[in-house]
């Protein structure tokens, strides 16, 4: 039986190697991409989808595209039914849509975003600690 996960030391840092199936566990769910007309109020579509599928989380929106993430607790039958109903009810707002399983690319992009957010948070925390230390040493009050 092959190991799902193994770790190795690489240039002084630990690296973890995982199988694709193990990594896919981090991306449980479906991705919904909706393309709208360029001069459409995207908020209308977002509100409609989130009202019909409360589990839907908006991940990104730009230009004509909206990217939602939905857990696997919602059946594909329900998702497609709601999207077809949205096309009918919202008339010519939705041009087309795509529903896919989460890909490895999605998971790696999400890992990178989380890592970047952690680095920013860590840097902010260090800056605040440095400022507090400077305040203590110089008895300077932070300006309002």
What's a quick, concise take on this entry?
With 144 residues, the protein is an alpha+beta fold. The protein folds into two domains: 24-102, VC0802-like (2-Layer Sandwich), CATH 3.30.2130; 103-138.
Full CATH superfamily name of the largest domain: VC0802-like
- Sheet-strand content, in percent, reads 25-35%
**What is the first-to-last residue Cα distance?**
63 Å
What structural class do the secondary elements suggest?
A: alpha+beta
Number of helices: 4
> What's the count of strands?
6
Estimate nothing, just give the exact number of structural domains.
Answer: 2
Largest sheet features: 4 strands, antiparallel
* Shape annotation: extended
CATH topology of the largest domain: VC0802-like
Helix content: 40-55%
- Which runs of at least 5 residues are low in confidence (pLDDT < 50)? 1-5
Task: Tell me the radius of gyration.
Answer: 22 Å
Q: Record the strand order, biggest sheet.
A: 4-5-3-6
CATH architecture of the largest domain: 2-Layer Sandwich
Pfam families: R1_ABCA1
Protein name: ABCA1-4-like C-terminal R2 regulatory domain-containing protein
Organism: Rotaria magnacalcarata
Keywords: Repeat, Transport
Task: Summarize the structure in words.
With 144 residues, the protein is α+β, with helices and mostly antiparallel strands. It folds into 2 domains: 24-102, 2-Layer Sandwich (VC0802-like), CATH 3.30.2130; 103-138. It has 4 helices and 6 strands. The chain has helices at residues 20-24, 42-52, 76-89, 104-138, and strands spanning 5-10, 13-18, 30-36, 57-62, 65-70, 94-101. The strands form 2 sheets. A 4-stranded antiparallel β-sheet has the order 4-5-3-6, with helices on one face. It is extended, with a radius of gyration of 22 Å. Mean pLDDT is 77; it is low at 1-5.
């Amino acid at each position: 039986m092959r190991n799902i996960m193994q770790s190795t030391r690489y240039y002084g840092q630990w690296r973890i190697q995982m199988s694709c199936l193990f990594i896919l566990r981090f991306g449980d769910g479906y991705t919904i991409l909706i393309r709208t007309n360029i001069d459409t109020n995207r908020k209308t579509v977002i509100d409609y989808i989130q009202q019909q599928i409360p589990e839907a989380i908006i991940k990104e929106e730009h230009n004509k595209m909206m990217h939602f993430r939905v857990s696997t607790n919602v059946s594909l039958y329900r998702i497609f039914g709601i999207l077809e109903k949205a096309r009918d009810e919202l008339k010519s707002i939705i041009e087309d849509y795509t529903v896919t399983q989460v890909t490895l690319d999605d998971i790696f992009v999400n890992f990178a975003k989380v890592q970047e957010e952690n680095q920013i948070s860590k840097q902010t925390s260090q800056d605040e600690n440095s400022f507090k230390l400077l305040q203590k040493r110089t008895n300077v009050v932070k300006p309002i």
